[in-house]
Amino acid sequence: MFLVGLTGGIASGKSSVIQVFQQLGCAVIDVDIIARHVVQPGYPAHRRIVEAFGREVLLENGEIDRKILGDLIFKEPSQRQLLNSITHPEIRKEMVKETFKYFLRGYRYVILDIPLLFETKKLLKYMKHTVVVYCDRDTQLARLMQRNNLSREDAEARIRAQLPLTEKIHLARHVLDNSGEWSATRRQVLLLHAELERSLEYLPLRLGVLAGLAALASLLYLLSRYLLPHP
Q1: At residue 117, does pLDDT exceed 70?
Q2: pLDDT band at residue 77 using 50, 70 and 90 as cut-offs
């Protein structure tokens, strides 16, 4: 199995592309969902966040108030680093668990939906392939204004807050251009899926695991022969 990191920009169409991959039966892990999951009450990250930021970041039901915490880390970069040091290890653990489940089920590759793949760079080293869902700036702006009912000024501010798509396309191995008709984008997704399915990059790891299991089985057999009493 190998990992495919998929990212995009606000209103670039990443969610629609993910839906196509899911319809094709692909394994998809949404890192945002994992990030929300690991900070739920009862999890280690939740306890450490409360210890670090105080109970004022909690809602009445005990869950993290994402708005209050977001405001805190937006104003103080050091606070953002502290939060990342708490959540990122837990997110990686959950990602490994989810990925291993798909490995056992025989999937050749797993897509990780990572909004800040190139911004944080933390997970890049694990990705065999990287994919950016791109659209040109005018299309992105128009879609965002319509989707979120924003003024042009507010929409431009949100786009500026992210790494430009024009930079991301130079960092990615694959680019899905969603600037035009959706049918054209969907065709690109189908072609990429076919390319990834044909890839043999999953074989080394799978063969290595099988060899390891075979060696373990042989060892257990030998131990049983020599250590256990025979009639």
Answers
A1: yes
A2: confident
Res 120: pLDDT: 83
Helices (H) and strands (E) in the chain, counts: 11, 5
- Residue count (the chain): 231
Average pLDDT over residues 73-77: 78
**Strand, helix or coil for residue 170:** helix
In 3D, which of 40, 3, 24 has the Cα closest to residue 127? 3
Q: pLDDT above 70 covers what percent of the chain?
A: 87
**Burial of 198 from C-beta contacts in 10 A (0-12 / 13-18 / 19+):** exposed
Secondary structure letter of residue 55 according to DSSP: G
Q: Please, where are the H alpha helices in 62-202? A: 66-75, 77-104, 117-120, 137-148, 152-160, 165-171, 182-198
Rounded Cα distance between 208 and 163, Å, is 38
How far, in whole angstroms, is CA 171 from its chain's centroid?
Answer: 16
User: What gap in Å lies between CA 36 and CA 217, rounded to an integer?
Assistant: 39
Answer whether 114's CB lies under 8 Å from 7's CB.
yes
Q: Coil, strand or helix: which one is 41?
A: coil
Q: What does the block give as tokens for 172?
A: 């990615």
What is the rounded CA–CA span in Å between residue 31 and residue 123? 11
Amino acid at 13: G
